[in-house]
Amino acid sequence: MQTTASNATLSRPLQGKTAIVTGSTSGIGLGIAHAFAAAGAHVMLNGFGKPEEIENIRSELSAKHGIEAVYSPADMTKPVEIRSMVETAAKQFGAVDVLVNNAGIQHVEAIETFPPEKWDQIIAINLSAAFHTIAAAIPGMKARGWGRIINIASAHGLVASPFKSAYVTAKHGIIGLTKTAALETAEHGITVNAICPGYVLTPLVQKQIPDTAKARGISEEEVIKTVILHAQPTHKFVGVDEIAALALFLCSKGANSMTGASLSIDGGWTAE
Question: 148-171 burial, b for 16+ CB within 10 Å, e for fewer?
Fold first, then answer.
């Protein structure tokens, strides 16, 4: 018979741990934040949104799961703010045990007309920000001999699509950063992995549907059918809850030897 303590560990496997989840005020990041909070972790949120909406998310997480939830308004294009966010979380919680780099933006346009400022912004938020959070979090994780870093990449970190030059470049870069960080931390009880989702019906994807329609000269309905879901043999969007469950598994003992991996969860997209 299992003890009460054992049951508690099984139901809340991240009890006493702390996590930063960037881009967590909506979509995949918010789903992961909810899953971690339900597992007992204290969570630092970060992302865009109206102050009152963000406060509602923060207070709901805290009240529903009995954990401490805080919010950082750090701008993911500004290295000083990014590193300060990690330092603040370490002071607030006493440690940063889990880091999830999820923040991302998208712009869909042909290379020859792709705005340079959009390129710079996407590379900064989708790639460089992860470097800065990882660099800031690793020393503390090494000192404690335990840490979990999860980078939300994309199927576009493994394969390309037209009209997404900056996004594809950034996500391929995330895969390389994941492998390098994994090798540098392998002897310190730290794992670094990348999750590569296919299309998930998040605000980011919803926003790019009209942009893709314009770039390809087709209707939005055709974009969903012939571009987005056509890429996934299941012809279904990947669920936010499925990605959150995978992130939670990567923090478990069962994933202790998984590091440097790029894990596809894309309805079979990259199998073709």
Answer: bbbbbbbbbbbbeeebbbbbbbbb
